[in-house]
C-alpha cells in the first residue's frame, strides 16, 4: 500500500514546518513502512544548522522515523482524531553520515512490538542506499485533549488572610514593606 501527502495529513497531526514525511511508498499494516523525505535548502532549520554547511539535524531525522512509526500506529486506531502518538524513548541512536539539501531520505521502520496503546520500532534512514541514521524508538498513544489545570480565574478566591500573606511574601522578596 502507498499513501500520498493528503493521506499522511489525515493520519498525523504534524504540519509544516514539522511534518517530515512526504510520501509512503511501502506499507504493511502493523509490520513495516517505508517513507520518503525530500530535503530542500528551503527547510527552516538550515538557516542555523549550519550556515555555509547545511546539515539536517540528527534529532529531526529521528523525528522523521518516529512520524513514520506513528503512521503505523495511527492507521490502526478507529478513534485517531482524538489520539496522539508520542515518543517515550530513543535507544541505540547512531548517526552515520550527514543529510544535506538535495538528498532524498528513505525512512524504513519495522515494528518490534505492537500493542493497542504502545509500540516499539526499529528505524533506519538511508540516502542513496547508504545508512545515514538508525535508532530504536518507543511510543505511546495518548488522548489528544490535554487535561486542564486550574487557572487563577477558576480557582477559589483567596480569603483576606491569604491575600495578606501573599502580599507580605511579595514584599519580603522585593524588599518593600
Number of helical segments with 4 or more residues: 3
Average pLDDT confidence is: 90
Estimate the helix proportion, in percent: 10-25%
Question: How many DSSP E strands?
Answer: 6
Q: Beta-strand level of the residues, as a percent range?
A: 25-35%
Q: Which word captures the global form?
A: globular
Low-confidence stretches at least 5 residues in length (pLDDT < 50)?
none
Helices and strands: which structural class? Answer: alpha+beta
Can you give me a brief rundown of this structure?
This protein has 177 residues and is an alpha+beta fold.
Description:
By secondary structure, the protein is an alpha+beta fold. The protein has one domain: Roll (Thiol Ester Dehydrase, Chain A), CATH 3.10.129. The protein has helices spanning 5-11, 58-76, 160-174; strands spanning 23-28, 32-38, 83-95, 104-114, 118-127, 130-143. It has a six-stranded antiparallel β-sheet with strand order 1-2-4-5-6-3, with helices on one face. Strand 4 and strand 5 (118-127) form a beta hairpin. It is globular and about 70 Å long. The mean pLDDT is 90.
Describe this protein with a few key phrases.
Thiol Ester Dehydrase, Chain A; 34% strand; alpha+beta; six-stranded antiparallel beta sheet; 3 helices; globular
Ordered list of secondary-structure elements with their pairings:
Layout: H1 5-11, E1 23-28, E2 32-38, H2 58-76, E3 83-95, E4 104-114, E5 118-127, E6 130-143, H3 160-174
Antiparallel strand pairs: 1-2, 2-4, 3-6, 4-5, 5-6
Amino acid at each position: 500500500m502507498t499513501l500520498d501527502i493528503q493521506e499522511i495529513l489525515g493520519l498525523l497531526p504534524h504540519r509544516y514546518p514539522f511534518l517530515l514525511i512526504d510520501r509512503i511508498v511501502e506499507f504493511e499494516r502493523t509490520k513495516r513502512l517505508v517513507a520518503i523525505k525530500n530535503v530542500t535548502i528551503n527547510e527552516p532549520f538550515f538557516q542555523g544548522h549550519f550556515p555555509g554547511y547545511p546539515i539536517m539535524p540528527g534529532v529531526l531525522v529521528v523525528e522523521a522515523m518516529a512520524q513514520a512509526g506513528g503512521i503505523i500506529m495511527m492507521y490502526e486506531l478507529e478513534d485517531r482524531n482524538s489520539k496522539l502518538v508520542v515518543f517515550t524513548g530513543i535507544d541505540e541512536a547512531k548517526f552515520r553520515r550527514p543529510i544535506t539539501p538535495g538528498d532524498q531520505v528513505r525512512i524504513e521502520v519495522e515494528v518490534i512490538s505492537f500493542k493497542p496503546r504502545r509500540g516499539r520500532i526499529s528505524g533506519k534512514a538511508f540516502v542513496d542506499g547508504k545508512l545515514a541514521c538508525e535508532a530504536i524508538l518507543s511510543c505511546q498513544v495518548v488522548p489528544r485533549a490535554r487535561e486542564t489545570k486550574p487557572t487563577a480565574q477558576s480557582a477559589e478566591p483567596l480569603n483576606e488572610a491569604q491575600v495578606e500573606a501573599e502580599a507580605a511574601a511579595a514584599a519580603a522578596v522585593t524588599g518593600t514593606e
